[in-house]
Design a protein that fits this description.
This protein is mainly α. Helix content is 75%, strand content 0%. Helix 2 crosses helix 3 and helix 4 runs parallel beside helix 7. The chain is elongated. The N and C termini lie far apart (39 Å).
Length: 181
């Protein structure tokens, strides 16, 4: 939805700027490093701007989680619409680590935060529900589908400690071995 009111548009842009800065800080130095002052410095704005849009650090973290999840869900939707959804997913996973390891690291830290906070469980549930829906046409059995979903999450997680992320053909080969054909 396009915002036509200039003040609202500027506010939405500032919020996006601050959330992106929060994600960079988390990706570089972890959740514990996030403060309004650190985010303000990262975003190049006065600390009062951060506290105006996000009164607490927790508000920043939740906004970053929602933004990260929205981006992942949009990527998953694009993959589902592709002629070769599994190939598109394999390429997307490889791209996440090829060009955005810091962002993916931040996203996983935010997901772990959500795991500890029951009020954030529905946000993580959005990913698991979307991944299940993506996989449903490829894996009919719900038990096997849960296993494939766990493998997708595991493939992403393994990229954090393995030197160099696998490439798209490697991801695709692993996924091909798991889905119905």
């Amino acid at each position: 939805m396009e915002i036509t009111d200039g003040r609202r548009r500027k506010g939405a842009e500032r919020r996006r700027l601050l959330v992106a800065a929060t994600t960079r800080v988390i990706g570089r130095a972890g959740l514990a490093s996030v403060s309004q002052r650190v985010v303000a410095t990262e975003a190049g704005v006065p600390p009062s701007v951060v506290s105006y849009y996000f009164p607490t650090v927790d508000d920043l973290l939740v906004a970053a989680l929602v933004e990260a999840n929205d981006a992942c869900l949009a990527d998953l939707e694009e993959c589902a619409a592709a002629p070769d959804p599994l190939g598109a997913l394999a390429t997307r996973i490889a791209t996440w680590f090829d060009t955005g390891r810091e962002v993916v690291t931040a996203e996983y830290e935010l997901y772990l935060l959500a795991a500890r906070r029951p009020e954030l469980h529905p946000e993580v549930g959005r990913w698991t529900t979307a991944l299940d829906a993506f996989l449903a046409p490829l894996v009919a059995d719900p038990i096997r589908r849960a296993g494939v979903a766990a493998a997708v999450d595991g493939l992403i997680l393994r990229c954090f400690w393995e030197p160099g992320a696998p490439d798209a053909p490697t991801f695709r080969a692993v996924l091909d071995g798991l889905v119905d054909h």
